[in-house]
Specification:
It is found in: Cytoplasm. The protein is of the alpha+beta class and 435 residues long. It has three domains: 107 residues, Trigger factor ribosome-binding domain (Alpha-Beta Plaits, 2-Layer Sandwich); 182 residues, Trigger factor, C-terminal domain (Trigger factor, domain 2, Orthogonal Bundle); 97 residues, Chitinase A, domain 3. It is built from twelve helices and eleven strands. Strands 6, 7, 8, 9 and 10 form a five-stranded antiparallel sheet that branches. Strands 1-2-4-3 form a four-stranded antiparallel sheet. The chain has a two-stranded parallel ribbon with strand order 5-11. It is extended, with a radius of gyration of 33 Å.
């Protein structure tokens, strides 16, 4: 039977569904009889409850369930016959004027759009290139040394300087009143490493043991403590201890302590370089992939299904709530989060997803088992026990699917760059890594 599909808007469609009442009645009776054999009621033996009693108590809910099931199946059959790809959930309402012995419903829904890919050969793209320089290796080596540093008291009268660990008492007040989190005793931090706000570090830098100082501190508007964000506090700070750091020598004991059995500085530097090159490769792939996919989406022509955008907004709002929970925000579940804040991002995601899916289908792009295996092993090689990491990913289809998705996106980006006009852009390792 041909399905009559009405076009209401660019992507909005309507289908009328008609169901025979007799078929619904028979299914309701069948389910009530099955329920009769299972239901337990006071005053009746199991399986001996009269059907009329079962129908009186459960008839409405069973009929509702049958109607939902049959309408859902009728809708699925209709869109399959019409070869429609439905975006989101349909809005189904009962329709008056059904033929005798029938019940009718209207299903209004959106379909996924036809996607017209742009001319990839007309795209002009910059592709980032970089390499690991000696400065990057040196910075990483210094980080390893700092992780194993020790501290000893500074000579009496010496001022605090960057790299020193200072122990202080402090108390802050806003308009003369203390505030939560604004007071601490014997609080230690390393000066110059960004553990405290810049104004706080600037005030402590140059102070000596036993010295006190009062200074103003303006909290940023986006400070995590919302009760003080954007306000200015007056802090009283007293320095109780100043310790200077001692970095370990890069000797055999140090090298072996970081897992390099050869025990030589050369072996350590080579290991650092390999790890940085692997990290650099992944970072380049991510940055260049973003460039390619954004250009692909921008060049395509399509309409966006509202249902898909709304569903994506739902996911983004839920993600924001989970972030608030992790940051310890009270009543994160009830926090008002305006949906319009996420509309542009949701539209961009839906657009990109539809365009990438069309490119994959058109050019039969896929992630091969060999590519997935290679990517997974390269990722795992940065861990102490790579084989355990590989097994961990392979043990869960969802985790393995994340790797497959990354590889597929990389293939898509490579395909786009192969078609486009590409200009290489060399950046330093520090620029790429945001240092």
């Amino acid at each position: 039977m041909a399905v009559n599909v009405e076009t209401l808007d660019k992507l909005e469609r309507r289908i009328t569904l008609e169901l025979p009442l007799e078929a619904i009645r028979k299914e309701v009776d069948a389910r009530l009889k099955r329920l009769q054999r299972q239901v337990r009621m006071d005053g009746f033996r199991p399986g001996k409850v009269p059907l009329s009693v079962v129908a009186q108590r459960y008839g409405y809910s069973v009929q509702y369930e049958v109607m939902n099931d049959q309408v859902g199946q009728a809708f699925a059959d209709a869109v399959a016959e019409a070869q429609l790809r439905v975006a989101g959930q349909p809005r189904i309402t009962e329709k008056e004027g059904a033929p005798e012995g029938m019940v009718a419903f209207e299903a209004v829904f959106e379909v996924f759009p036809d996607v017209k890919l742009g001319d990839l050969s007309a795209l002009e793209l910059e592709r980032l290139e970089s390499s690991v320089d000696e400065a990057a290796v040196e910075r990483t080596l210094e980080i390893l040394r700092k992780q194993r540093r020790t501290f000893s008291p500074r000579a009496e009268g010496e001022p605090a300087q960057d790299g020193d660990r200072v122990t202080i008492d402090f108390e802050g007040k806003i308009d003369g009143e203390p505030f939560a989190g604004g007071k601490a005793s014997d609080f230690a931090f390393v000066l110059g490493e960004g553990q405290m706000l810049p104004e706080f570090e600037n005030a402590v830098r140059g102070m000596k043991v036993g010295e006190s100082k009062t200074f103003p501190l303006a909290f940023p508007q986006d400070y995590q403590g919302r009760e003080v964000a954007g306000k200015t506090a007056d802090f009283l700070v007293t320095v109780k201890k100043i310790e200077q750091q001692q970095l370990p020598e890069v000797d055999e004991a140090f090298v072996k302590s970081v897992g390099i059995e050869a025990g030589t500085e050369a072996a350590l530097r080579e290991d650092i370089r390999r790890n940085l090159e692997r990290e650099l490769k992944f970072r380049l792939q991510a940055r260049n992939k973003t460039t390619a996919l954004e250009a692909l989406a921008k060049a395509a022509v399509l309409d966006l299904p509202k249902a898909a955008v709304e569903a994506e907004i739902d996911r983004l709002v839920e993600g924001a709530r989970q972030d608030l929970k992790q940051r310890g925000i009270k009543d994160a579940d009830k926090a008002p989060i305006p949906r319009e804040l996420f509309k542009e991002q949701a539209e961009r995601r839906v657009r990109l997803g539809l365009v990438v899916a069309e490119l994959i289908k058109t050019h039969d792009l896929r992630a091969t088992d060999e590519q997935v295996e290679a990517h997974l092993r390269e990722l795992a090689s940065s861990y102490e026990y790579p084989e355990e990491v590989v097994r961990w990913y392979k043990a869960d289809p969802q985790r393995l699917g994340e790797i497959q998705a990354i590889v597929l996106e990389n293939n898509v980006a490579d395909f786009i760059f192969a078609q486009a006009k590409v200009t290489p852009k060399v950046v330093t390792f520090a620029e790429l890594m945001g240092q």
